TrEMBL record:
<dbReference type="InterPro" id="IPR002877">
    <property type="entry name" value="RNA_MeTrfase_FtsJ_dom"/>
</dbReference>
<dbReference type="GO" id="GO:0008168">
    <property type="term" value="F:methyltransferase activity"/>
</dbReference>
<keyword id="KW-0489">Methyltransferase</keyword>
<dbReference type="GO" id="GO:0032259">
    <property type="term" value="P:methylation"/>
</dbReference>
<protein>
    <submittedName>
        <fullName>rRNA methyltransferase</fullName>
    </submittedName>
</protein>
<dbReference type="Pfam" id="PF01728">
    <property type="entry name" value="FtsJ"/>
</dbReference>
<keyword id="KW-0808">Transferase</keyword>
<dbReference type="InterPro" id="IPR029063">
    <property type="entry name" value="SAM-dependent_MTases_sf"/>
</dbReference>
<feature type="domain" description="Ribosomal RNA methyltransferase FtsJ">
    <location>
        <begin position="174"/>
        <end position="261"/>
    </location>
</feature>
Length: 334
């Protein structure tokens, strides 16, 4: 099994695998870790640091573009026997972006492999798409991860953990907008028109703007100013209050948003815990900063029976594409 992550966080990915799942790491590199043995289904789904998991990958080596492409095409054709493909299927080719020139190599091998498949199975080859389905879950297609110019790992089955690059919005007042946009895919839901969102620590308003543009009504709670598309937005009511002291009035809040630059245990104790215990929200998206704490220790605490998150359902903790030293936590109470 091979798992990818944000480059620079592979040591944390390896620690999560070994300390929380008892796995044995075979090797690792910039943005990836390969295991000796696979995790079980539940273990894969619970991974926080992973972006993409290749199941039962097969190693392919070659000195030239054509040699690599030929082996990958042969692998796909062999594994395709007995399978009928009627709709689009993902053909995803990845590798460490930090390795200079590797992107061009991957592109060349991908094109050569595509041409080889068209000669053998034109109809199937034309149905290939480089796009992964949005959200998290198991997918089947062709997945290739290059660890070097002459070495790749290939699989027909993968698990997508929800991380993906999101399109920016020129009206969004901050890059944090991208984080909540990405989080919707992990939860599988997003704010709807007419729903009520409380955004604690809202300024400058990236998350509030994301909900408001979908027609949700937003209470943006922060003593700081809103900016960009969040400023004077008709769907956003700015409450100049302390996020830690704010309590909603009677009536259900559909979404709790919280992206505070605060110690994570303080946020868990004074916001997440009370909000979930009192049933103040139906769904939540919360970012917890781990820059000054042990990230793996924090993951262990979040999964514990006494964690505030134990009250919620469909909880997922992820280190997403647009996250820095922080976890995105999503879940629902309904």
């Amino acid at each position: 099994m091979l798992l990818t992550c944000q480059a620079g966080f592979e040591a944390l990915l390896a620690r999560e695998l070994t300390e929380l799942h008892g796995a044995t790491v075979a090797e690792s590199g910039a943005g990836w870790v390969r295991l000796e043995t696979a995790l079980d289904e539940r273990g894969v789904e619970r991974m926080a640091m992973a972006h993409f998991t290749l199941r039962e990958p097969v190693e392919v080596r070659g000195e030239s573009v054509n040699a690599l492409a030929g082996q990958i095409a042969k692998f796909f054709l062999t594994r395709l026997k007995g399978e009928r493909i009627e709709g689009t299927w993902p053909s995803v080719w990845l590798g460490p972006a930090e390795m200079v020139g590797l992107g061009r190599r991957i592109g060349a091998v991908e094109n050569a492999c595509g041409e080889a498949l068209k000669k053998r199975l034109s109809r199937v080859a034309k149905l290939a798409t480089p796009e992964l389905p949005r959200g998290a879950g198991a997918v089947r297609g062709l997945f290739v991860f290059f660890t070097d110019f002459g070495r790749a790992w290939v699989s027909r089955d993968a698990f997508v953990h929800g991380a993906r690059r999101m399109a920016d919005d020129p009206l969004a007042p901050s890059r944090s907008y991208l984080k909540v946009e990405e989080a919707y895919g992990v939860l599988g839901r997003e704010p709807q028109a007419g729903e009520l969102v409380v955004d604690l620590g809202a300024a400058p308003g990236g998350w509030s703007y994301s909900a408001a543009k979908r027609g949700a009504r937003v209470l943006a709670v922060d003593n700081g100013p809103l900016k960009g598309g969040a400023l004077d937005h008709p769907q956003i009511e700015h409450r100049r209050e302390d996020a830690f002291r704010y309590a909603p009035a009677e009536g259900g809040v559909d979404w709790l948003f919280c992206d505070l630059v605060e110690e994570p245990h303080h946020v868990l104790q004074h916001i997440v815990g009370p909000w979930l215990a009192r049933g103040w929200c139906r769904r939540f998206v919360v970012n917890l900063k781990f820059g000054r704490v042990d990230a793996i220790g924090l993951l262990r605490e979040l999964a514990a029976a006494e964690s505030p998150l134990a009250r919620a359902q469909a909880v997922r903790v992820r280190h997403l594409f647009h996250d820095r030293e922080e976890f995105t936590v999503v879940g629902e109470m309904v």
